[in-house]
Design goal:
Blueprint (H helix, E strand, L loop, with lengths): L12 E7 L2 E6 L3 E6 L4 E2 L9 E5 L2 E6 L1 H4 L9 E8 L6 E8 L4 E3 L16 H4 E7 L2 E6 L1 H4 L4
Parallel strand pairs: 6-8
Antiparallel strand pairs: 1-2, 1-9, 3-7, 4-5, 5-6, 7-8, 10-11
Length: 151
């Protein structure tokens, strides 16, 4: 019987699908919870990419629609990813929510796969830390403090 070889590398990132061919990644420890069919609360006079909030563990979190922020059409709230990040100024832990089109996938990322940011949106320049190639496509790594700044 042939021995089954398993990868020695454990996943270290989550691949996020925002719909409309917009994808990005975050570190493995960033994701706190996935909420199916979330109950969102509309916020008037806000940008198209951040038109709602969600109540989560006694906190009101901004809900970021990355597809809309990157130039696509606004998404319907199907799945919500709660993410933790550190504030750039006071280093406190903050939380925000990202609309997703599909469940996140656990992936392995390595420095050898580094590549330029996708050309599909210039907004990636300000919203990402770096970029890597995964399955033939460029995947930006989100800089969550920038994503949720002023939201």
């Amino acid at each position: 019987m042939a021995a089954v070889q398993l990868s020695a590398q454990a996943p270290d990132a989550w691949l996020l699908d925002f719909g409309q061919s917009f994808r990005a990644a975050v570190g493995k420890r960033v994701m706190v919870q996935i909420i199916d069919d979330p109950k969102l609360h509309a916020v008037p006079r806000t940008p198209a990419y951040c038109r709602s909030t969600v109540l989560w563990q006694g906190r009101v979190l901004p809900v970021m629609d990355m597809a809309a922020r990157l130039g696509g059409a606004p998404q319907a709230p199907r799945l919500l990813a709660i993410a933790a990040y550190h504030d750039q100024t006071d280093k406190s832990t903050r939380f925000g929510a990202l609309l997703l089109d599909a469940l996140p996938a656990a992936i392995v990322v390595g420095d050898a796969k580094s590549c330029p940011l996708p050309e599909q949106s210039t907004a990636w320049d300000n919203l990402s830390l770096s970029c890597f190639e995964y399955q033939g496509a460029a995947v930006p790594v989100l800089h969550l403090a920038r994503v949720f700044a002023h939201s």
